[in-house]
Amino acid sequence: MLLPALLSEISSHDFEVAETLIGVLRFVLIFVAARSLAELLVRFELPTILGELLAGVIIGASGLHLLVPPETQVQLSGVFSNVVGGIAHIPPDEIPEIYNESFGALQAVSNLGLFSLLFLTGLESELEELIAVGAQAFSVAVVGVVLPFALGTLGLMGIFHVDPVQAIFAGASMTATSIGITASVFGELGYLRTREGQIVIGAAVLDDILGIVILAVVVSLAAGGTLEIAPIVQLVVAAVLFVVVALVLSQKAAPAFDWVVDQLKAPGGKLIGSYLLLGASCFIATAIGLEAALGAFAAGLIASTSKHRHEIQAAVTPIVGLFATVFFVLVGAGMDLSVINPSDPSARSALVIAGFMFLVAIVGKVVAGWAVFGPQKTNKLVVGLGMLPRGEVGLIFLGLGTAAKLLSPGLEIAILLMVIGTTFLAPVLLRLVLKDKPPEDGNEVPEEFAADPLAGAS
Amino acid sequence: MLLPALLSEISSHDFEVAETLIGVLRFVLIFVAARSLAELLVRFELPTILGELLAGVIIGASGLHLLVPPETQVQLSGVFSNVVGGIAHIPPDEIPEIYNESFGALQAVSNLGLFSLLFLTGLESELEELIAVGAQAFSVAVVGVVLPFALGTLGLMGIFHVDPVQAIFAGASMTATSIGITASVFGELGYLRTREGQIVIGAAVLDDILGIVILAVVVSLAAGGTLEIAPIVQLVVAAVLFVVVALVLSQKAAPAFDWVVDQLKAPGGKLIGSYLLLGASCFIATAIGLEAALGAFAAGLIASTSKHRHEIQAAVTPIVGLFATVFFVLVGAGMDLSVINPSDPSARSALVIAGFMFLVAIVGKVVAGWAVFGPQKTNKLVVGLGMLPRGEVGLIFLGLGTAAKLLSPGLEIAILLMVIGTTFLAPVLLRLVLKDKPPEDGNEVPEEFAADPLAGAS
């Protein structure tokens, strides 16, 4: 670790002890909080990812100030400083500086969790199942992406006079359904193998792809700060091409990938091979002006048809389990809930915007359920409700938008509440609707979805 | 990520792109180099860990300058700066600063790999097998720790006039045999279940414990810079107590740990539970003045009798596979080989010291083989040679010693060469000695050792 010169009056040993204590304590706090809340929520049959978010809010900038990202400018808890300072023999008022100094390491670990999670999401995309319900799923996905994106963006600009770049970003954050949460709720109710279940999963895979393409374009655009047509077209073309190439490679290049991996004789070859693919794909995506996150997802798509897929999945899952938790908790920790304090008149507009986004997020996806066509009987409400939870992809939007400083605090909170609200509502409403109707055709759950595919992540 | 104010003339988007590219490229370079060398060595039936070290030397401060820890003060390769600068539209001469700024994240990931590796080493300690060959193993372990430690420390002080703290540290670095490498060589030769194999594994577990206790004491002491009796006694007592408590807990507390883990209903509970145990143990070790590394090892000992041990092992192995590689490559990358350039007269003393340490490291452990007593026939040379490889524990000494700036560049290289030399020599010599003698009593390899227990790490 680098010793900042300004702390030269502190012995380098005490400094290192303090750094180790801060790192370990931060890690322990994240996991104790995330696990406690996740265990609570799982007992109410709610997605554990909500627990990780709430854990972040509780120990973060809006709560106990134990986990405070430096960019929030929030003062670290005095208890934390006193404990670490006391043990390491360093004046407690020096602790916040060491804390901030070493925060980049936690963000690096969190990014690693994010990229691993996106890789796993791509890896678990059932492209073949998708083709079976292709037309229906495509129709639901497109309506479910276009509607919330258009309504959200135009509404935020027209009604609330939000800056166009921010409005587009917030609109885009409502596009992608969480495959993991949807699949686990349907699986648990025995509805995964029904026509509705298959359409929802297919549409969720497709809108992940559409959503992550939009994300890649929006973040790159917004970084420029202006909205010109030429770069938008250029980025959209690049992003679509990138995903198309990944999809083609997933059909064609998997044998080559498998051949390379089979040549590796030293232990751990499949995992290292996968992370090299992940790294190369992130590098290419970044180099052509897209988000690294898109590269991670595309790498997962490419590996999804590998014959080693299940082994890769087994090796990546614990990595996601540890580090994606850090990502979700950090997202919650960075939120400033004071901007929606209802007793503060100036904060009310943020609350109204949050309400608007929540409504659009629900209406957009429920209406998408009616995009199912054809003669077969389909419960369109079930399809619509199944598309509700935004979960991890919504949070990836939020995390990247916050990191790129694209969003006002009010919009950050609005996105957070939209994600929490839809992810909370979907299982509750689906259980109500499906309670009395046993699934019509068998409820055999395929192995892939028997457990929450995000098992590790929560 | 934090934007340093001094780079304000660069747009924050370009800065972030550069930061992402540097992070991803560094990661890809580490794994391409480590994997290539590991694949090469495994074809000569040599331990892959040697490949990871050499990979670090090749891309590091003594080689291509692609992976340069900031503390080495070595200039980053111009090729690296030009590639990243070109893609991110940043002047190449600004790249080294961003590179150094973000190096802490890589070191954090490397520490995570180190702690996970030590946890896994503790977890895989076969305490019951140890008891079976207890007295013999204990005798070999003690002689094999005391002899190199005493000969090394006294020789370095007496013959080469090395500073006492450095001499003690270098002596201590020769104490611990690598369980992983030894077990994999014996396993491969079908000798693991022989009397010799069992004694060596038992002694390797014991000298790991002794070695890590010595490490915890020496690093803490050396940080103070002085050698007084009172703090030495205090630290030795603390370290021994800490390990004894961990050993007692491994017999008594595993049911409690299992009970807690069994209550966890959200997915991933065993892994999170293990890392919380790891975090808490590292925190306590650091808080009472010992090394966090000892805490990580002790946590593994505690979990080693858990009924979930195999599941925990399966989940931790991929994490070690990715991140311990980063640790080993970074150790190699930080080495300055110019200090042993034989054509430079002032560098010759470093080479002589390296030769001396190599010799002591071999003699100390081979003689320890003759510490086997009792009426049963035992091939004492096989036991001695089996104890040779210092592998990962030697490197942990080196990594921590370098990080704490305890060692002169010459001693760092001497330790590196001692580790490389013994780890290279052991499998070669053992194969020569054992070539014509099939094992006497069965060569059934227990499941735990059928594969390299460090499988993930290499």
TrEMBL record, chains A, B:
Pfam families, per database record: Na_H_Exchanger
Superkingdom of origin: Bacteria
Transmembrane segments: 20-42, 49-68, 130-160, 166-187, 199-223, 229-249, 275-303, 315-339, 351-373, 413-434
Topology in the lipid bilayer: Multi-pass membrane protein
Major site of localization recorded for this protein: membrane
Keyword Transmembrane helix part of the UniProt annotation: yes
Gene Ontology process terms (BP): proton transmembrane transport; sodium ion transport
Ranges of biased composition (kind: Acidic residues): 441-450
Gene3D superfamilies reported in the protein's UniProt record: 1.20.1530.20
Cation/H+ exchanger transmembrane domain span: 40-434
Record has tRNA-binding as a keyword: no
Coiled-coil residue spans: none
GO cellular component: membrane
Entry keyword set: Antiport, Ion transport, Membrane, Sodium, Sodium transport, Transmembrane, Transmembrane helix, Transport
Localization in the cell: Membrane
A GO molecular function held by the record: antiporter activity
InterPro entries noted in UniProt: Cation/H_exchanger_TM, Na+/solute_symporter_sf
Residue ranges of the region described as Disordered: 439-458
Stored PANTHER family: NAPA-TYPE SODIUM/HYDROGEN ANTIPORTER, SODIUM ION_PROTON EXCHANGER (EUROFUNG)
Annotated family: Belongs to the monovalent cation:proton antiporter 2 (CPA2) transporter (TC 2.A.37) family.
Protein name as annotated: Na+/H+ antiporter, CPA2 family
Species this chain originates from: Parasynechococcus marenigrum (strain WH8102)
